[in-house]
Amino acid sequence: MENFHPGQYNLKRFIIITETNVIDISNVFLEINLYEDLFAFSYSGNVAIVESDNLPGVEKILGGERILFDAELYNEVDGQIQKLDISFLGFVSKISTEFVQATGTAKKYSIEFVSEQHVQNLKTRISKSFVKKPLHEIVKYCFNALQTEAPLTVENTQTTLEKVIIPNWTPFRAINWCAEKSIQTESRIGSSLSSFIFFQTLNESRFWFRSFDNLYKQPPKKEIYYFVKKTHSFDVDIRKYSTADTFEVLNNFDLIKLGMEGAYSSRLTEISVTEKRWKNTTFNYRDDFHRKFDSLNKNPFYNQYLNPFLDSTSMVLFMKSMEHGSNVNMAKQVRTSQLSLLSNHRIKIRIPASPNLSVGDVVDFKYPDFRKDTSKTSGLDMTHSGLYLITGINHHFTSEKYMMVMELVKESIGGEE
Questions:
Q1: What pTM value is reported for the model?
Q2: How distant, in Å, are the alpha carbons of 261, 317, 345, 411 from that of 302?
Q3: Residue 1 counted as domain residue
Q4: CB 88, CB 132: distance < 8 Å
């Protein structure tokens, strides 16, 4: 493609399917936002529309209509242009922010929608017991109950409970319960108790059941550089990177919140009523960082001698039955720490669309050091630079371009400069 530019896309089809009609909205939309979220079970979105034909009233858009989006996206990798077809089918769930423009000749409103699997999940209930079944097999069973054509990628777990009862839950709730109890099988750390997470990506509408360790050990899919005018000594060929044109720190750290949530330490009390015994197990982030879970970067994100919560094991108390087994119960402490630390250092950036990126991917973010003299350093701010996990993406389309606003998190920090 001779005149390729980042953010270019080709809209093939954008329609709303009502009970009696098919409405083409490709010429009346202002913007489209498609949201991927690592901590949500499915994607969602909205479209802002300005039109003068009163489509909601005339076509009786009252919720439940299908909204179909097809586009051809372009991405540049190592100087080569790649094409990626993206398609989603959503259910209209709400019309909001409706108002008449000042001229009185047009109306502006936002149509919100969710994925079809989101709706199907709410309509489906599972009541079933499983005996000595690996949890990843239970995940597959629950997902199949959705009767969806969306693909599912499942990472095997090592956890097999004596008996599992799903008590009239939705499939997503049952799968999330399995995620809380699951322990990974393959890790760079042999004794890892890393937990799992369940999410959907926009690409292929695919669902994923993956361990945090599995996410963290991925090689970065892209290097992203926050480029400002050259006021530092970091020498970079800007063509090599995706360039972020905005940068915002959403959260740097919240010591008190993390400490009270059990990010740094916790005590697990296991009780056996039948055997009349109990056992305490302590978790300490400092001691267990390299023993019980993997990480994106090589160093823990704390001040070792100043953090007051590292040995405060009474800050979080879990009461658990011993029937699940010590590893499964102890994994709850690791999961609590991992989830809490994923809110520790969050940033938001905007880049020209890179369609090969999804939530759950890892990127290498490079943020310049703004000190005057960086001749003896790498030229990077090591607090903000490093490997990040993508936890949220807003795929933002206008009639002119396609941009991605991404939330990135890291729960560990890189090496010294």
A1: 0.90
A2: 15, 22, 11, 10
A3: no
A4: no
